[in-house]
Design goal:
By secondary structure, the protein is mostly helical. The protein has a domain of 112 residues. 76% of the residues lie in helices and 0% in strands. The protein is built from 6 helices and no strands. The longest helix is centred in the N-terminal third of the chain and has 43 residues. The chain starts with a helix and ends in a 16-residue tail after the last helix.
Length: 173
Amino acid sequence: MITLDQVIYVLPLLGIMVSILYYTMVLRNSNRTRAAQLFMSLHSIMANKEGMSDYLETMYMEWEDYADFERRYGSDNNPKAYAQRLSIWNALNNYGVLLKKGLIDPEMVYDAAGAIIIMSWDKWRPIIMEQRVRYLGPNYLEHWEHLATVMKSIQDRRGIKWMPPETGFRFEE
């Protein structure tokens, strides 16, 4: 039979256990909220009018080969295009850093910008690979590359069979 002394002894222990469980749930929820806020603050760089304008201008860039790219859009010949491109590239690379460190949820990133990330990497991959060889080393924008790979795997896992049109964002009749 349970005595009053036993109940008085067990109640504080149960209270401590409930407090620990509650604190753990609150902490987990606050970490998710912080991760979402972190993602959204980074995402706001591109998700405003100016950022989207810069993004579209970079996606409309065309070139024949790397030398042609440098003549048209390199930092020496076209600082504005260089700055636009680099701001987009750095934002995407920063998403990749956060993803690699486990600070943002890959599913959330995919839902918010997966197609844009994949399409951007596919467009810029040849240029970035050439810049790795010529100037910046094998790790240049590696986090964006990782991010694009993860986004592509989510797309494949979800069974989405989408490829961007060859015309990109341009409308053609």
